[in-house]
From TrEMBL:
Gene3D superfamilies for this protein: NAD(P)-binding Rossmann-like Domain
PANTHER family: COA-BINDING DOMAIN-CONTAINING PROTEIN (PTHR33303:SF2), CYTOPLASMIC PROTEIN-RELATED (PTHR33303)
Domain CoA-binding: 7-99
Top-rank lineage group of the source organism: Bacteria
Transmembrane segments: none
Matching Pfam families: CoA_binding_2 (PF13380)
Protein name: CoA-binding domain-containing protein
InterPro entries: CoA-bd, NAD(P)-bd_dom_sf
Organism encoding this protein: Allorhodopirellula heiligendammensis
Length: 130
């Protein structure tokens, strides 16, 4: 399998930067993963609930360790999100377009994580699968 197939084969997901605002990509990615039947948790320190699901401030606050993490945050936030993900033991990280951070990518790869940071968009891939 390639890195995208590995990511999409995960059983559990978290979305860093999930949002209640329907026009934001964090909301679209969260809803797309749910619509695809995937167990998905929203991460947003400024929200208590997103789309009817309890939101969590950080990955360490989740009730489970997700296998995969989709990141839709500004690059400077991506660094801390990735550092938390590495420490928690996440296996797959997908930095959505605009969230990429070179230092975070390098750290995740050095830690042995599957990293997607090439400008690919999960929304496009999920749309093709449905």
């Amino acid at each position: 399998m390639n890195s995208i197939e590995d990511f999409l084969a995960a059983k559990t997901y978290a979305v860093a930067g999930a949002s209640n605002r329907p026009h934001k990509y964090g909301n679209k990615v969260f809803r797309a993963l749910l619509a695809a039947g995937r167990e998905t948790y929203p991460l947003n320190p400024a929200q208590d609930e997103i789309e009817g699901h309890r939101a969590y401030p950080t990955i360490t606050d989740l009730p489970i360790l997700p296998e995969a993490l989709s990141i839709i945050t500004p690059p400077e936030v991506t660094r801390s999100v990735v550092a938390d993900a590495i420490a928690a033991g996440v296996k797959h990280i997908w930095m959505q377009p605009g969230a990429e951070d070179e230092h975070a990518s390098e750290a995740a790869r050095e830690a042995g994580l599957n990293v997607i940071d090439d400008g690919s968009c999960i929304l496009v891939l999920l749309a093709r699968q449905s």
